[in-house]
Structure formats: structure tokens, C-alpha cells
Amino acid sequence: MGYRLGSMFFLPILVAIGIMPLYAEEATIKATAAWQAQGHFFQVQEKQALFVGAFSGIMVVEPKQGGLDVSKMLCPGMLEVNLNDGAQSAEGRCIIAARSGDRVYATWNCTGVHLAGCTGKFNLVGGTGKFKDITGGGDFQMRSDVVEYAAKLQGDSVEATAVGVAEWPALKYKLP
After folding, report:
1. Does residue 21 have a cis peptide bond before it, meaning omega lies within 30 degrees of 0?
2. What is the pLDDT of residues 20-30, one digit of tens each?
3. Higher pLDDT pick, 45 / 10
4. Count of domains forming the chain
5. Contact call for residues 69 and 99 (beta carbons, < 8 A)
6. Phi then psi for 163, rounded to 5 degrees?
7. DSSP letters of 18-48?
8. CATH of the domain at 87
9. Cα angle vertex 91, ends 145, 138, to 5°?
10. pLDDT at 74
């Protein structure tokens, strides 16, 4: 009985001075983003092309929660394409901006085949404001027509503007 009374007394004090957070938020969401890519393809080997650019668009989250239900995203990255078989691998970073102005930072990587998609990992690595110290991640897939520009390479490089979609079927996050 004395232990419970002591806990009831000290818990509010620990929360008030910040030693023990009031609660942690943890959830799994589903997200989809339509995006546009802008950048350049470079021929880096005889049958190998490299896209360097940024993917930008709107991320829609279900269920609507946590201030990220509709967010802007900007994801600089690189996509390497084998021009013989269409195999591709990509990696980059993302800045996801909530309407409040708070941001979530992420890293991503994927592998796949042209038109079939590029699947991989998306990792939440931090943020600002409400999303400071966010962690989590999950699998994602992106599909686009960006690789079609690689086939048009004549010379050293070609400017590319493409569209696509990204899906996160079960993106887990945790806020301390």
C-alpha cells in the first residue's frame, strides 16, 4: 500500500520535471504518395544509367492522425538502372513536412525491375517540433516511368521529369 501511495505522489513530479514522459505515441499507418521526379540521367557505364534528382509530392496517411494526414514530401535521391535488363536500385532521403511546419526525416533504399517497381526499406530517423526524436520505418514500394528516360540517353546526360506513386502498407512510428 505504501509503494502505491509513493508512486502516486512521485509520478506527477517526474512527469512535470521531464524525467518521465507523460506518454509515448506509437502507431502503424498506411501511406500513399503521388509524386513527380525532376533531375538528370547520366550514362555512367556502357549499359548503366544513373538518375540524380528529387521526388516531390503529397503523402496521404490513413488513418488520419498525428498531424501527418496530408503532408508535403521532398525526397532527393539516386536511381541506378541496368539498360540491358531494367534492373534498378535506388537510395535517398526524405523530408516530410506536416501542415504545422514540423518535419520528419527519413532514409530509403529499394531494388527492383523497371515497371514492376522498386521495393525496399523506409526508415524514420528524426524530425523537428512534435516529431523530434521520431523513430520507425517499414517496407515501401515505388513505381514510375522515370527509367524510360534512361533509354533516351544520347551523349552524357538527359534531363528527366517523370511521375510515379509510392506506397507504405504498414509504416510504424514511435514518438518518445
Report:
1. no
2. 445 588 999 99
3. 45
4. 1
5. no
6. -125, 160
7. TSS-S--EEEEEEEEEEEEEEEEEEEEETTE
8. 2.40.350.10
9. 95
10. 97
Find, among 65, 59, 69, the residue nearest to 27 by Cα.
65
pLDDT digits (tens, 9 = 90+) for 93-131: 999 999 999 999 999 999 999 878 899 999 999 999 999
* 31 located within any domain: yes
172: which 3 cell numbers? 510504424
Segment 141-173, tens digit of pLDDT: 999 877 676 667 777 778 888 899 999 999 999
> Per the domain annotation, does 136 fall within a domain?
yes
Whether residue 9 is contained in a domain is answered as no
d(CA 159, CA 52): 10
- Long-range CB contact pairs, 79-82, < 8 A, 24+: 79/50, 79/51, 79/118, 79/146, 79/147, 80/44, 80/48, 80/49, 80/50, 80/51, 81/41, 81/48, 81/49, 81/50, 81/51, 81/114, 81/147, 81/150, 82/47, 82/48
pLDDT top residue among 138 and 150: 138
Judge whether 16 lies within some domain.
no
* 126: containing domain: 25-175
Amino acid making up residue 49: A
Single pTM value for the model:
0.82
